[in-house]
Design goal:
- The chain has 327 residues and is an alpha+beta fold.
- The strands form 4 sheets. The chain has a 4-stranded antiparallel β-sheet. A 4-stranded antiparallel β-sheet has the order 2-7-4-5, with helices on one face. It has a two-stranded antiparallel sheet with strand order 9-12.
- Helix 3 crosses helix 4, helix 4 packs antiparallel against helix 6 and helix 6 crosses helix 7.
- The N and C termini lie far apart (87 Å).
Length: 327
């Protein structure tokens, strides 16, 4: 009987060991599935960036070559021109298509307006802020995009976007579900609150994937022309505001218009709360600041055990951090 008990005990131990191994295998398989999903997601993002970088780089090179050719044709003497240099890089996602509008032209353009519920407005705004290519737009630009988007509906099994086609619309999904495929391979499914088709209006490239509906869907859409008008108009308005501000700074009033324009191109507006530190003594600096509104206090700390020494107060038009520009 003792031998039988021993065998039963040993059998139970083996069963428990096998159960633990099965649980470990299940856990490892789950972890492997998660890693496969992450790899697929990263691959999709990589495909997106590759599809954008190539056409955008080609367009930028072509635009630069055309501009240089036009300058050479206008200056047959071949003298050294002023104001050359590398093409400007905008912080926000603006289409690379060449344009020839000025602020006066764009100020007469009337943008369409489509009424929406507060819930729809919030959904569109959050979708844009969640999109890698559009999240850096200014809030004023996002608001205009929200206002200009119009409703679109598709039935089940409809093709909204076809890979390789020339696209001119970007969509935000409010209701439903779609499937995204590339070269016949399923990439993902998307539901409400997602943006798709944005590459076509940002970089004027062909559609990089196919999007088909799995159920009836309700979307909001905006076309490239309307989107570009918003980008250009807000960009030019902001540039004009920065130019007027720089001209109001006594130190910059003697600078040529061309230099002021270049400064306005690289200015970025930043906000700080009352009492917040902008620069800390001893920290590495890489930013030059010009005060457009408000005041700041400048202090120096001679000893960690003593209170900081107040030096002066700076206001609108004053600047600090200039040594950062000198390396």
């Amino acid at each position: 009987m003792g031998t039988l008990r021993d065998l039963q005990y040993a059998l139970q131990e083996k069963i428990e060991e096998l159960r633990q191994r099965d649980a470990l295998i299940d856990e490892l398989e789950l972890e492997l599935d998660q890693k496969d999903e992450l790899i697929q997601k990263l691959q999709n993002e990589l495909d997106k960036y590759r599809s954008v970088i190539r056409p955008a780089t080609q367009q930028a090179q072509q635009a630069q070559q055309a501009q240089q050719a036009a300058q050479q044709a206008a200056q047959p003497g071949g003298g050294a021109g002023s104001g050359g240099g590398e093409p400007r890089t905008k912080r926000q996602a603006i289409s690379a298509e060449p344009t020839a509008f000025d602020l006066q032209d764009l100020s007469h353009v009337t943008l369409p307006f489509y009424p929406k519920s507060p819930q729809s407005k919030d959904l569109i705004k959050e979708a844009i802020l969640d999109n890698d290519f559009m999240k850096n737009l200014e809030l004023s630009q996002i608001q205009e995009i929200v206002d200009c988007m119009y409703p679109v509906e598709y039935g089940k099994d409809s093709c909204i976007i076809k890979e390789g086609d020339v696209g001119s619309l970007v969509y935000v999904m409010e209701d439903g579900k779609v499937e995204v495929t590339k070269e016949g391979v399923k990439l993902c499914t998307m539901g409400p609150g997602k943006v798709f088709g944005e590459l076509a209006i940002l970089y004027n490239c062909t559609r990089t994937a196919t999007v088909k509906t799995l159920v009836n869907v309700k979307l909001w859409a905006i076309d490239r022309q309307c989107f570009q008008t918003i980008m250009m108009r807000t960009g030019l308005i902001k540039h004009t505001e920065y130019m007027e501000f720089l001209k109001s700074v006594p130190t910059f009033q003697s600078l040529p218009e061309e230099i002021l324009s270049k400064l306005a191109d690289v200015l970025e507006e930043t906000h700080y709360e009352n009492g917040e530190y902008i620069i800390r003594q001893g920290a590495r600096g890489d930013t030059f600041f010009i005060i457009s509104k408000g005041t700041v206090n400048v202090t120096r700390e001679d000893s960690p055990s003593e209170d900081p020494i107040f030096l002066r107060t700076l206001g609108k038009g004053d600047w600090f951090g200039e040594k950062a520009l000198q390396g």
